């Protein structure tokens, strides 16, 4: 029978000893050759061997006592939290399986003490490990297959499936998975597969700025330079002005594209037009005459976004028309 204290040696039968002694049981401060310390076996042995011993069937009241399982459960949970939060390379799958197996084995030992005809304590450990992994990783089908392969028991497929689904659904009611929470704490850019609950009924105006910075399809170079100096946006909306005074979205232009256009002077120099007059449409001859004749730097300068890379040209700047339907440079 098991020893009375947590640190006292645990005397086991020859059959159970032959099965687990070679992998998990440790004889720390034990006098006899067939005595093993249960707390040392749970804490000093490899977690893979501990999980295998916890899954062992037909060893109720022989391998581990409920007191040792309870203390090991608290210790393993605390160490897993500290280790995972310390930002060191350590696994999480096997520790979660160990914690679940300890909890399931503890419950199985208590149930078997109350009702010897109940299910084996090793089966409780298997279901507990599967439920713990499902609550942490939120896996369902793949986890069921993994646990069935580990246990080599196809008869436990239905109870494992029920436990995994129940653990996942219960955990989803409170928070996200542990991996998603770690990504949020690290502030890594991550787009979840589903929108948040509060964004299901949200509109674009709920998340956009009240006064967005917009540029016209034909804009002054000075205005663009002023926008680049006063803002830090990575992209800007390109709008067209309708007849009713409203603006319509035509597309967007990136910040580095505008900076490249200004750096390469890929804009057209024009004089101030007279009030009420419309500028003539650009032509090849006009572009040639502008490139061959000196142009005064006075007056507002207008810029059109290039459909082709303006920095690939050499010589005098030319006009590069770009509409909303075309591709951005």
What does the model show?
By secondary structure, this protein is mainly alpha-helical. About 45% of the residues lie in helices and about 10% in strands. It is built from 13 helices and eight strands. It has helices at about 15-20, 40-45, 45-55, 65-85, 95-115, 120-135, 140-150, 155-170, 180-185, 205, 220-230, 255-265, 285-290; strands spanning about 10, 35, 215, 220, 235-240, 245-255, 270, 300-305. A three-stranded mixed sheet has the order 3-5-6. A three-stranded antiparallel sheet has the order 4-8-7. Strands 1-2 form a two-stranded antiparallel ribbon. Helix 4 packs antiparallel against helix 5 (about 95-115) and helix 11 crosses helix 12 (about 255-265). It is elongated.
What is the mean predicted local confidence, pLDDT? 74
Distance between the termini: 80 Å
Q: Describe the global form.
A: elongated
Using DSSP, what is the number of strands? 8
Helix content: 40-55%
SSE arrangement, N to C: EHEHHHHHHHHHEEHEEHEHE
Largest sheet: 3 strands, mixed
- Residue ranges: pLDDT <50 for 5 or more in a row? 1-13, 282-329
Report the structural category: mainly alpha
Indicate the radius of gyration in whole angstroms: 36 Å
Number of helices: 13
Strand order of the largest sheet: 3-5-6
Strand content: 5-15%
Per-chain topology:
Layout: E1 9-11, H1 14-20, E2 35-37, H2 38-44, H3 47-54, H4 66-85, H5 93-114, H6 121-137, H7 141-151, H8 157-172, H9 178-186, H10 204-207, E3 214-216, E4 218-220, H11 221-230, E5 235-241, E6 247-254, H12 255-263, E7 268-269, H13 284-292, E8 301-304
Parallel strand pairs: 3-5
Antiparallel strand pairs: 1-2, 4-8, 5-6, 7-8
Helix pairs in contact: 2-4, 3-5, 4-5, 5-6, 6-7, 6-8, 7-8, 11-12
């Amino acid at each position: 029978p098991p020893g009375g204290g947590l640190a006292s040696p645990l005397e086991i039968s020859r059959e159970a000893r032959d099965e687990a002694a070679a992998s998990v049981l440790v004889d720390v401060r034990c006098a006899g050759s067939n005595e093993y310390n249960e707390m040392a076996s749970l804490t000093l042995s490899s977690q893979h061997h501990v999980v295998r011993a916890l899954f062992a069937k037909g060893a109720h009241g022989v391998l581990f006592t409920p007191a040792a399982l309870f203390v090991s459960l608290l210790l393993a949970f605390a160490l897993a939290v500290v280790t995972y939060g310390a930002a060191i390379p350590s696994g999480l799958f096997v520790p979660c399986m160990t914690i679940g197996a300890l909890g399931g084995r503890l419950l199985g030992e208590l149930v078997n003490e109350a009702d010897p005809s109940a299910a084996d304590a090793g089966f409780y450990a298997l279901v507990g490990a599967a439920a713990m992994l499902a609550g942490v990783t939120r896996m369902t089908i793949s986890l069921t297959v993994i646990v069935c392969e580990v246990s080599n028991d196809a008869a436990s497929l239905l109870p494992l499936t029920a436990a995994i689904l129940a653990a996942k659904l219960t955990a989803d009611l409170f928070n996200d998975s542990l991996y998603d929470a770690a990504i949020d704490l690290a502030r890594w850019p991550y787009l979840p597969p589903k929108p948040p609950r509060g964004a299901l009924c949200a509109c674009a105006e709920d998340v956009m700025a009240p006064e967005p910075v917009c540029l016209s399809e034909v804009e002054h170079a000075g205005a663009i330079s002023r926008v680049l100096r006063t803002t830090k946006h990575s992209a800007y909306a390109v709008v067209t002005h309708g007849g009713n005074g409203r603006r319509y979205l035509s597309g967007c232009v990136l910040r580095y594209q505008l900076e490249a256009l200004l750096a390469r002077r890929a804009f057209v120099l024009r004089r101030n037009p007279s009030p009420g007059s419309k500028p003539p449409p650009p032509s090849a001859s006009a572009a040639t005459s502008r490139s061959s004749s000196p142009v005064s730097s006075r007056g507002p300068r207008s810029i059109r976004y290039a459909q082709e890379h303006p920095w690939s040209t050499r010589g005098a700047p030319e006009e590069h028309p770009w509409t909303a339907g075309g591709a951005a440079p």
